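About this split. The held-out portion is used to measure sequence recovery: a designer receives only the structure tokens and must propose an amino acid at every position. Recovery is the fraction of positions where the proposal matches the reference. Here is one held-out target exactly as it appears in the evaluation file.
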């Protein structure tokens, strides 16, 4: 056997091992989702008897019950309004801040962005009391703003960091040419720069949407005194009663809450991956 055959066989072995690892990884990642779907089609009695298997008699009515019993239909608008509103605000403010820090020669820009990033290391529970008092003083507790404003503030530091690093990958020659041609800073930003940062925008949209859509603690605290402002994660708590949890309906509710996340990530997936890879390299 010559060296060429040995190398070919070695490459085939490596490919086989790689595919095996990918298959195992896919199963590990996909099984929790399949487990959720299987559970959503089981009755509570079958859930305890047949925990990990396929549903023997699919109970499709679990989804209808989840929508009505958990009042998910009532809370769906709140989650969409709060999440979309915070995503728009985070994207707008972070792009402006990232552009200023990345391409407008702001003094101590690195120190400023690092100061912003330190806020990400403060546990949210440490500021809930003061934040609640602030919202009460501003008389915002009975409005969607009590959710939108904190959600926006929590997501801005990391989002601004992503935009700053991505803006630094855009050659200054493009921006300087627009300035020489007489474009204002705002015109340059809107017409020249924004079309070049679609991957970064997709990255921020995905992170912000996922983080805010499933947030529970602050939403539960804020909406404790209002039945009309509750979001979907808070609505899932309705499945817990004195008699226990209806696991089939609960899993159906979780599935309904998860669908928007899958759709958003699926739509932005291509841009999301490009934003993570390109924004991480300066040049």
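Reference sequence for scoring:
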């Amino acid at each position: 056997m010559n060296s060429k055959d040995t190398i070919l066989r070695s490459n085939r072995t490596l490919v086989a091992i790689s595919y095996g690892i990918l298959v195992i990884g896919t199963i590990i990642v996909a099984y929790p989702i399949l487990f959720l779907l299987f559970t959503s089609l089981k009755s509570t009695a079958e859930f305890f008897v047949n925990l990990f298997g396929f549903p023997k008699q699919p109970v499709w009515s679990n989804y209808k019950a989840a929508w009505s019993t958990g009042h998910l239909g009532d809370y769906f608008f709140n989650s969409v309004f709060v999440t979309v509103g915070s995503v728009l605000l985070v994207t707008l403010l972070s792009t402006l801040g990232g552009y200023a820090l990345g391409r407008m020669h702001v003094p101590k820009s690195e120190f400023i962005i690092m100061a912003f990033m330190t806020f990400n290391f403060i546990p949210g529970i440490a500021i809930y009391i003061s934040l609640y008092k602030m919202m009460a003083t501003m008389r915002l507790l009975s409005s969607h703003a009590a959710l939108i404003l904190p959600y926006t503030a929590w997501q801005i530091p990391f989002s601004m960091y992503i935009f700053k690093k991505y803006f630094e990958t855009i050659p200054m020659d493009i921006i300087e040419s627009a300035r020489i041609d007489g474009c204002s800073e705002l015109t340059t930003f809107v017409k020249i720069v924004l079309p070049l940062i679609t991957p970064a925008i997709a990255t921020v949209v995905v992170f912000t949407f996922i983080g805010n859509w499933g947030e529970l603690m602050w939403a539960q605290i804020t909406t404790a005194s209002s039945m009309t402002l509750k979001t979907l994660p808070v609505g899932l708590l309705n499945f817990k009663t004195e008699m226990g949890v209806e696991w089939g309906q609960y899993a159906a509710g979780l599935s309904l809450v998860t669908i928007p996340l899958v759709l958003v990530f699926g739509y932005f997936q291509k841009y999301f991956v490009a934003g993570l890879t390109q924004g991480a390299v300066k040049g």
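Annotator remark: Strands lie at 240-241, 244-245.
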